Amino acid sequence: MSTDRAHRPSAVHPTDDLARAIDDLPLVDHHVHGAIDHDLTCRQFEELITESDRPIPSWMTQFDSQVGFAILRHCAPLLDLAPHTDPETYLARRAELGATEVNRRLLEASGIGHFLIETGYRGDEILDPAGMAQASGSPADEVVRLEAVAEQVVAAGTDAAGFADRFAAALWERSRTARGLKTIVAYRHGLDFDPRPPTPTEVADAAGRWLRAVESTGRIRVDDPVLLRHLIWTGIDRGLPLQFHIGYGDPDVDLRRGDPLLLRGLIERAEPSGVPLLLLHCYPFHRNAGFLAQVYPNVYFDVGLGVNYTGARSVAVVAESLELAPFAKILFSSDAWGPAELHHLGAVLWRRAMTRVLGGFVADGEWSQAQAVCVATMIGVENARRVYRLGEGT
């Protein structure tokens, strides 16, 4: 592991052996995006450490937030600065080092042993899996976004009657070496959709409506609930693990319709397929996700995005994620996109939270230290390696 890892804070409650065991885990980040490989202005950086898509008001800084304080605490030492330095000093040092060196330091220090990179969102602006592997020194594989493939099919040209077959062929080819698939139905419609597979006639009719809309507006964006259902069921037929964005995200998502309990109908219909359904991030619905992971064998979840953005309070979020679900059903992710600080924080805050929470169980005599190490290893590494068949051919 990189010597930069020494900058991590020491454990508070547990034994040193537990802290070291968690710190040394080669985490599998099962849902993440690439890092930005070019330098950022101060404004650009601040816009990338919030889920808001609105301009930042001139009277505030985005560093005055949990994620901002976490960057200054945990990332500043990796750039040769004191913890809790001011934002101006941090950003000046970041610019001095340059994006390539910043990425190398932060990604290596994260201790992430394998990245599963979702490439469907602004993929031309970030490192692809090969670039992430080179920058971090760790393997990286791809997760393919269903909606992006459908939009590429329409951009390349199709008619309504041929859309379903063209999409299926494109998806099989596009995911030939991928480890998983993802849907953003939560953004494009909400999770309160009809869980049944649509009929071929329904798909063709919906594709016709979409193509007419594209022709009239010039905008290629799939948001018809019939088509979104079709993409999901085609993804299930593909047989790869299928990820769902759940809960908290940018303003494009209607959080009122982001509760994973709305997916129960789909979960039950998909169960005979044996395809793993991965509920991503889930905040503030992570307890609901834990219930689903407990009662349905095909459901898994993580609290990824919520960890970074709750910062010093992320210990509580991680603790709540351990309440209901079997430990074999919980995974680690960061959902980082853009600044490598988010990739690093996803790992360091998760390790810190697991150390404190599990260490508390050990200190209280509720768990043995061996049990704590086993659970941390399952969630941080082994569950993802099993679900995504890492180390096996696709």
TrEMBL record:
InterPro entries listed in its UniProt record: Amidohydro-rel (IPR006680), Metal_Hydrolase (IPR032466)
Pfam families assigned to the protein according to its UniProt record, in alphabetical order: Amidohydro_2
Top-level lineage group: Bacteria
Domain Amidohydrolase-related: 197-390
Name listed for the protein in its UniProt record: Amidohydrolase family protein
